[in-house]
User: Fold this.
Amino acid sequence: MKFGIIVFPGSNCDHDCYHAVKHVFGQNAEYIWHKETSLKGFDCIILPGGFSYGDYLRTGAIARFSPVMQEVAAFAKNGGLVMGICNGFQILTEAGLLPGVLMRNKTLKFICKNVNIRVENNQTVFTKAYQKNQVLNIPIAHADGNYFADRDTIKRLEDNNQIVFRYSDKDGKITEHANPNGSVNNIAAIINKTGNVLGAMPHPERVCESILGGEDGRMIFDGIIKNSQEAIGCR
Amino acid sequence: MKAKVYVTLKKGVLDPQGKAVANALETMGYKEVKGLRIGKFIEIELDGASQKDGEKRVKEMCEKLLANTVVEDYRIEIV
Assistant:
């Protein structure tokens, strides 16, 4: 399976993603400079974390006009798997590939710590290796992770089961105290309606090896890879 | 020709930064502060275009890039 990791000026988790995909999971991986205009041959595109364009104007606002983003939109429209992590999630919302917006954290602080998230939907390509309601310990590192959307959009996301992870306590309870950034309904990750574009503020690529502090992020990649193998099996 | 663009958070959207600044003013003794919202001011220098066309294009810039209309409103002044 071939993963493409988009590199914007200011991306800084691109190497973490590359390392996870290539060295932990033994898959093909390539960096894709944001000026590229073709995504031919890729099975999954990752928009990594970082501070693309210095977060100027709004997070992700300028990156979404990088030439490659037109290709990402076309790739997603054709059913290709796209995962945006942290800044990648912010870019996907700015690009309109996912609804809502990620605003400044309620505390106004940059938060870099491990948090607990609960798996809300394990029927997606990305989360099928998890149990529903499983609690994961995963790092976050952001100043703008406060998910917001209007009431109708939130209702639609809830009704369609598009909320993939929520911030929770270690027992899986969704409390205000467990919500690090003020996100509506403790939302940490959402998926588009067709189930092929995921946006997540937590960083699964940072917890794929116990030597780096945990393995709770592994199963996202396991899910994607397993899905691809099944698809090949069907052909 | 210049365009002045004011980008502000929509009504009802939480503005923690504005709240923190309002609290600071209050602590400083400005008890009259009843609310404060922080926005952005963008000044654009334009060449050529007639005023009407200019405004249309600045509106386009706001919709596409300068404001995120999910949470922000914008106001344009052509001077």
User: Anything to note?
Assistant: Residues 78 and 198 of chain A are 15 Å apart (CA to CA).
